[in-house]
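Supplementary Methods, section 5.1.

A reviewer requested that the exact input to the structure prediction be made available. We therefore reproduce it here, unchanged from the version used in the analyses.
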Amino acid sequence: ERQRGDELQRVILVECPGVGEQDYLVEESANGARIEISKERVIDETKVKALEPVRQSHGRWEHLFDFPFADGRFEIPPGSDGVELDSGILRVVLRKQTSGRTWGRAGRSQAPAS
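The structure derived from this sequence is encoded token-by-token as follows.
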């Protein structure tokens, strides 16, 4: 958890070597995020003769990172700011506004009222 200006951030880091952009799914939950990672076998072990045991990481992993509602509402920011996969580390940033936002009649976000 870290404070950045007028927002509080919670960062989820998942170590997932060998995972590509097509192998994961991040969904916003009621107050957090659900992460699913599916990795297929790279080598069909029935079609090769291994000189040494073949070690592969594969399968499905899923976890719901849910925070208490008493902590406030945390959301994944729109766009690519909230989810990033880099060098086998999946990073999900959830943000909570600590000052209120208001919307005008046209629906555009405006600066907090002073």
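The two ends are 26 Å apart (CA to CA). These observations are discussed further in the main text.
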